[in-house]
Amino acid sequence: MDHTIVVERTIAIVFGIVVLVTALVALKNDWKTPGLENHIFKLMLALLALGGLLGTLAGIGIIGKA
Amino acid sequence: MAVASSLLSTPVTHGHDDADQLYIETRELRVQGFLLFMVSDLVLFSSFIFAYLYLRNTGQGWPPPGAPHVDIWLAAMNSVVLFGSGATMHFALENWKHRNFMKFASWMVATIVLGLLFLGGQGVEYVSLYTKDHASWGGSGIFGASFFTLTGMHGFHVFVGVIYLTVLLLQATAGTYTFSKYTGLTLGTLYWHFVDVIWVVLFSIFYLL
Lengths: 66, 209
Known about the structure:
Low-confidence stretches of chain A: none
Strand content of chain A: under 5%
Strand content of chain B: under 5%
Order of helices and strands of chain A: HH
Oligomer: heterodimer
Helix content of chain A: over 70%
């Protein structure tokens, strides 16, 4: 496999997991915060966690068109 | 007489208290106004996304002949860089709430750098598509037009976001925001998360589906 691809996939997997965990922890900490903007923040954090998950799965090669 | 007595009974307030009261009264309005702007932006992106999905599902086959081959690994790496900037932006705001300016500034710089890295990655991808597949906005059919329009529009939003965050950081450094009044920083964080979330959709439809 090309060296560049290995670097790209590794970064995608590692960063993806970091983003996933960070977003989920932040979501858990902010879960009970009131207010309109905080509710939007929670929605955004959930979607950010989804993004981290998708990035990780794409890096592993489970999803996506290689 | 009644007016005079009511004026006399009105408590004397200082300018500082008036400013605080004005801030409290207008805060919700400013947040709602910004959310309306984000909804309008969401409608703009949704129109292009649904147009792309419609074209994709009504065509003879997908991808159409001659469509450029997008690099999923580069896109996956670039995506997590942008998503990572969402996490750093979250840390920046949290540190501001905890009255730690230095950590706030550090996370803001990290967010700006990651945003610039994303833009650089997108530039590399465009150059690669142009040189390898000879793909361009006008010369690569439905797929190319949709791809470059949507990712280009998103890239422009990231570019604007990088400038926006830089201005917010400079304002915070100059003392525009206090640890109790920081609506501008909250709205900047909302904008950056919005840009991240739009990319989750674009990454899914162009690289994963």
